[in-house]
Amino acid sequence: MEAGGDIHHLLYNDLARFTDNFSESNYLCHFQFGKLYRGKIVHAESTLFVMVKIWEDSQIYCYKPGDNESRLMDEVILLRNPMVINHPNLVKLYGYCYEVGHLGVVYEFDPFDSVYNLIPKDNTSEKQDVFAFGTILLSLISKRLYTEQDRQNLAPYVCQWAYGKFIEYEIDSSNTDSKKPKFSVVHPSLEADPYFDPSDGHKITALALECV
């Protein structure tokens, strides 16, 4: 059932179907209030690739009853605003799920965009936050998220963690004669995807590090 315009009102069962029942192979990362998954919506004539975000009861962040519902509706209202619908730097909303105990949104998402396709889009943007883009990119490809618990434990931010790994790689490379694979922080579960190009791991890692 549609929720007005091209935005679809979805059931939780729809989200499960899109993500192969929220399988580990489709899991992307955590965000502050839940999880992100990639998925696909198969039609007779075409397949639409999507990203599914679900809200969960947080074990770390303090919240009041209704907070997650408010966050979901704020996001839906924002992404349906005529001023942002065609914004080149914002995701396109496909639909949302608003059920008791189950909340989620679905974005259109092309997982086959290469590094070379991403760079021209950044270059043509009138306004951009390069550091934020790099941080988000590092979080996605490494499946790492800086949480309140990390802050309390004085853990490094994802950009600091990635740079530290790069320094370790450089030192290790200088102490060995063997030819090592190029530096990459892409998570093994993403590298195992049959559509993943091994050469993209280093390229997209380098792009993210340049941004931060």
Low-pLDDT parts are none
**Count of individual domains:** 2
Please tell me the CATH architecture of the largest domain by its name: 2-Layer Sandwich
* Rg, alpha carbons: 19 Å
State the order of secondary-structure elements, H for helix, E for strand.
EHEEEHHEEHHHHHH
What best-fitting shape do the alpha-carbon axes yield?
globular
Can you tell me the CATH superfamily of the largest domain?
Phosphorylase Kinase, domain 1
Task: Write down how many β-strands occur, each being a DSSP E stretch of 2 or more residues.
Answer: 6
- Assembly state: single chain
Largest sheet: 6 strands, mixed
Number of helices: 9
For the record, give the distance between the C-alpha atoms at the N and C termini, rounded to a whole number: 42 Å
Give the overall pLDDT as a whole number.
80
Into which percent range does the helicity of residues fall?
A: 40-55%
Q: Mind telling me the CATH class of the largest domain? A: Alpha Beta
3D architecture notes:
The chain is α+β, with helices and mostly antiparallel strands and 212 residues long. The chain folds into two domains: 8-108, Phosphorylase Kinase, domain 1, CATH 3.30.200.20; 115-211, no CATH class. It is built from nine helices and six strands, in the order βαβββααββαααααα. It has a six-stranded mixed sheet, with helices on both faces. Strand 3 (34-42) and strand 4 (47-55) form a beta hairpin. The radius of gyration is 19 Å and the shape is globular. The model has no long low-confidence stretch (mean pLDDT 80).
